Amino acid sequence: MKSSQEMNFDALVVGGGIAGLQVALDLADQNFNVAVVEKDSTVGGKMIRLSKVFPTLDCASCITTPKMAAAAHHENITLFTYCDLKSLDRSGEPITACLTQRPRYVDPVKCIGCRQCEYACPVYVPDQEQGGLTARKAIYIPFSNAIPQIALIDVDNCMLCGKCEKICPTQAVDFFQEPEDFTITAKTAILTTGFDLTPIESKHQYGRGEIPNVITSLQMERILAPHGPYNRVLRPSDGMEPDSIAYVQCAGSRDKSMGISYCSRVCCMYAIKQAMLLSGSLPLADIIIYYMDIRAFGKGYEQFYQNAKAMGIQFVKAKVAMIDEGESGSVAVRYEAQDGEGVTTADHDLVVLSLGMIPDWNPEGICPVSTASDHFLKTIQPKIAPTLTDMEGVFTAGAAAGPKDIVDSITEAGAAAMEASKYMAAMERSKKAVA
Ligand SMILES: Cc1cc2nc3c(=O)[nH]c(=O)nc-3n(C[C@H](O)[C@H](O)[C@H](O)COP(=O)(O)OP(=O)(O)OC[C@H]3O[C@@H](n4cnc5c(N)ncnc54)[C@H](O)[C@@H]3O)c2cc1C
Q: What is the mean pLDDT of residues 247-268?
């Protein structure tokens, strides 16, 4: 472990998803110096991994990449990717964050992102960026528009053959790189740590992720994405073009048996979006959404839902009780329809679980900020100042404070940036008054 270095910024943003990037850009445009700390090897969060976005069906990558690039090239923003936040405290005047830069085993200054190392690497491992549906190499750049474009070695799978080191034109591969500790001090911090999906393994009635052709909604996002694993819609087990695709709603939300009683707010809309995209790719396929209630809460969302119905997407009001492996790769969905038809079993070629949202970060032992009963960050004035946490000078935005779509995440990011900027201005005023 290398020794600690200290850097000072006006604002520290924890989490480089769409909310964090928007906070950083809004503050940097007001001339504040901003550090963005991201645990992943690239910024962009979940949004850069989506196919298209509701309700406009814009290409997610086309609208996220410019934000990522704007943050990376902004003179007032410094990105720290592949970093672990060890502690974030405010015992004294500035907020102090202790961080560890994880080793990429590739020198970030020397790497030119040419991917020669990746082509030379002989090891193939499942690519989690593509939902595990295709393979990547043991040395890799996460995806083609990742920022920064710096390769990293997955040491758990590297066989140390040295082919990457030999081919690298800038001698950037460094098998001896070590974790480096550093400290950031800042006047304010904004926590934008986002969400994770409810684990597919936690619901045994839905197969715990072990039934072939039962996939998650994020895997379907990748299948539908222009640079997805198959470049078309195929079912994973045998590459067949599916004729019947079902969505199981509330597969990880509004479910007390999983300890998740809240609604994740985006699942109805993303299922409708994916169903519409699927019907464009596979016009003859039957697409069915099993739902408890459709929550189309945002501007233009109800119309989006009505358009899906007009396109022939079938909506069946039912709670799915059980999912089992069917014959020849099919999936048997057992459900009780609300129209009184009783318990029915239907076979589908592919089933997508609309998993809900849980927090991606637990501050316990790292930062004294409180969480609410849903385990997302607690906001102390949810109505009139929804970005305030119970730690002075620390704000939050996006899915870190609860399930949220992109529109609300961006809006909240702007609000958090404004609160942070107001807080810094007030600090300055009180310093001047004392002087
Ligand atoms: C399948 C699916 C489809 C969706 N489709 C749409 C859609 O079409 N339209 C729409 O409006 N919304 C959609 N959403 C919702 C959308 O993804 C979220 O609204 C958005 O990603 C929230 O952005 P965020 O920045 O708050 O969180 P995230 O995207 O989760 O970003 C948070 C970032 O913080 C980082 N992080 C977490 N903890 C730490 C830590 N301790 N230190 C440093 N970094 C950390 C994470 O690595 C991540 O990069 C969809 C969601 C899903 C699951």
A: 94
**83-110 pLDDT, tens per residue?**
999 999 988 779 999 999 999 999 999 9
**What is the model's pLDDT at position 91?**
81
Query: Would the pTM count as exceeding 0.90?
Result: yes
Q: Rounded CA gap, 421 and 432, in Å?
A: 17
Measured CA to CA, the distance from residue 125 to residue 154 in angstroms comes to 10
Angle at 382 between CA 378 and CA 384, to 5 degrees: 145
Q: Which CATH superfamily is domain 2-102+179-194+360-430 in?
A: FAD/NAD(P)-binding domain (3.50.50.60)
Instruction: Supply φ then ψ for residue 153, to 5 degrees.
Output: -105, 130
Q: Is the CB of 64 under 6 A from ligand 1?
A: no
Dihedral of alpha carbons 310, 316, 322, 326, sign = negative
- C-beta 255 within 6 A of ligand 1: no
Domain limits, the chain: 2-102+179-194+360-430, 198-357
Using the mean position of ligand 1's atoms as its centre, give its distance from the Cα of residue 430 in Å: 36
C-alpha closest to that of 410 among 67, 85, 73, 129? 67
Residue nearest atom 5 of ligand 1, based on CA coordinates: 270
Cα 26 to ligand 1 centre (Å): 18
The rounded distance, in Å, linking the Cα atoms of 214 and 229 is 16
